[in-house]
Amino acid sequence: MNLSFQDKTYWEEYYSHADRIPETPSPFAMFLVDDGIIANRSIIELGCGNGRDAKFFAKTAKSVIAVDQCMNTTSMLDKLDGISSYPADFTNLNPVDDADKLDVVYSRFTMHAVDVDGENRTLNWILKNLKSGGLFCCEVRTTKDDLWGKGVDKGGNVWYYNSHHRRFVVSDEFVSKVKEYGFEIKSAKEDKGFAPYKTEDPIVLRIIARKPSA
């Protein structure tokens, strides 16, 4: 049984005091830029959070779309050159026009913030709205994370901790699901060192998947 949860109020409060977009991008964003994956490509970020990665991508990408359910950050991003940003639930996005299909879909630390139905809708949307040969780049917390098991057990690897939910993915199962949706796995690795933050260094899954060419 799928547990449905909604933490919009938590995230709106979390970002409500932000008055600027941080200059330092995440390690995942830097990896993708250094690897040439973003250069001159159209990209959408699903759940842009504080906006730091979208701002960073705009320096090299052809175009950047950044969506998040919290308007505070998206309103700041939308004022920057090269970025189109708006508040939205990324699990319920409208399809893009065929001429506007995307080169890259980027999701960092957002897939574990939605329920299983939301994950399924998102993967389906990504497949339909990526160009042939386009990439899905995702980083997500897994059941090997030290935070797994903390707080209230809601079942299905969902834990309620620090006033919001996390649905930790089982790495092999998530990779298999992405393949079942029709993607080719270019790389998938579960490890520490991908997302260090202050004293934390969680085990996360970093996956890059390709939509097959027509």
Q: What does this 3D model show about the protein?
A:
- This protein has 214 residues and is α/β, with parallel strands linked by helices.
- It has one domain: 3-Layer(aba) Sandwich (Rossmann fold), CATH 3.40.50.150.
- Helices cover 25% and strands 29% of the residues.
- The chain is built from six helices and ten strands, in the order H-H-E-H-E-H-E-E-H-E-E-E-E-H-E-E.
- The protein has helices spanning 8-15, 27-34, 52-57, 71-77, 116-129, 171-180; strands spanning 42-46, 63-68, 83-87, 102-108, 130-141, 152-155, 158-161, 164-167, 184-191, 204-210.
- The strands form two sheets. It has a seven-stranded mixed sheet with strand order 3-2-1-4-5-10-9, sandwiched between helices.
- The longest helix has 14 residues, at 116-129.
- It is globular.
- The N and C termini lie far apart (35 Å).
Quick description:
Helix content is 25%, strand content 29%. The protein has 214 residues and is of the alpha/beta class. The chain is globular and about 45 Å long.
Please supply descriptive tags for the structure shown above.
alpha/beta; 214 residues; 3-stranded antiparallel β-sheet; Rossmann fold; 7-stranded mixed β-sheet; 10 strands
The largest pleated sheet is described as: 7 strands, mixed
CATH domain fold name: Rossmann fold
Average pLDDT rating: 94
Give the number of helices. 6
Helix content: 10-25%
Question: Architecture, CATH level 2?
Answer: 3-Layer(aba) Sandwich
Beta-strand level of the residues, as a percent range? Answer: 25-35%
Q: Which structural class do you get from the secondary structure elements? A: alpha/beta
Low-confidence stretches: none
